[in-house]
Amino acid sequence: LIFIKEERAKAAQVQDVFLEEDEKVRPLWQIALYFASMVGILVFANWAKPMETVGVWYAIFRIKWHLTWLFGLIFAFCLWRFFKVALPKVVIAALPVVVASVLFANNPIIPFTTGAVCVSILISLAGDEMKNWRDQTWGFAKQILPLLFGGVLAAGFFLGSPESKDAGIIPNTWVQALVGDSPSTFFSLIGSDSSAVPKWINVIWPVWTNFFASFTGALMYFATLTEVPILKGLIDSGMGKGPALALLLAGPALSLPNMLVINSILGPKKTLTFIGLVIVMATITGIIFGIL
């Protein structure tokens, strides 16, 4: 919307190019349902037990494996109807999962792992399209897993773990002083009386912590998924939930190398606008999330 006139002028100069389709395109709703089924399996299989034993989140936790089964059935339907995997093969792949669910009803991880193995074998025996999905997934796994392990090691080295205070080389008080929920830690760190914090500091503190998290996150480079263990380490060290979300939003969206590349393509005006939008929106989102 900011540069809409300029973009419309560019679009008016572009001639329509018609490309001959080599193959039939699958409808968007089929792709959406396929991905939604896989996302649903991962979300509910990893649904953690909440602190309270009442409410919606706990009710979902109690039926998490039933919901995982439901999305698993949708996934199997997608393989059969959309990707033309033979129905007998789908049924045969599902049988070990059913048996494991009956034998290990109190340990759902076993049937879930069995299902993952059976799906891998099923895809390997399916058509070329499913084999292409398998190869692409394996390629991403080889790229991402080493970076993820590196992120876990880095988070543990710098930030420690929640079980041991100040186990990392960065003290928890430093994190709490810059992006914690209260400014008292910051005043204690600089040698001032933490009990005499001005009221106006308490008012603007959420703005500062979320802006600081957004700004530093925009400058940092996060390899894929490494932000998860790093953010977990920061939260365990005392980072507020609002700044944590602000960092999680701004970090993957921007980085210093990313800014240099964007500037070479869009120019400084649009680059600064994009950076400003990312930082401001991440800050506002973090403030709202911290209040909730």
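Above is the first protein from milestone M3; the second protein from the same milestone is given next.
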Amino acid sequence: MTSTTGRPNRVALAIAYAAGTALAGYGVWLMLTTRTSRKLFDVFLWLAGALVVHDGIIAPLAVVVGLVVARFVPAMVRAPVQAGLFASGAVTVAAASLVLGLGRKPDNPSLLPLPYGRNLLLVLALIWATVAVLAGVKRIFRRTDEFADREESVPPTRRERTSEEA
């Protein structure tokens, strides 16, 4: 939401903030008017648990992984690896309840009918195959650039100097 001058477009930001505030307020109003007090307690308990899990486990783990990647992964392929880690984490978190079978009932096999563990592994394999391709492409382009730089830095041969002087 920046203008052509690179400064933030204040009108667009104000509209986005107003829309976000209105939607959040509507969500809170719906939650407070359509839930029983027990359900509200469950919602707040879930939100508190999510906050503790994020701040106590996910964020520190992300920092440690980021430090390890920054230390051991070469700069040339660091961006694809970081993107792969981010995508893997997001997909794993989204699929965790399905893979663990949370909500599965023995008397209703149609609730979670698919092999979610296998499917998660397939998606993760696809993500990392993409990372490998991107890293390979970056390496090829780097070598091409190095070769072009080397050719430009080679002094002209005797024949090239003679033809340039003529």
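Note on the second protein: Residues 116-153 form the longest helix (38 residues).
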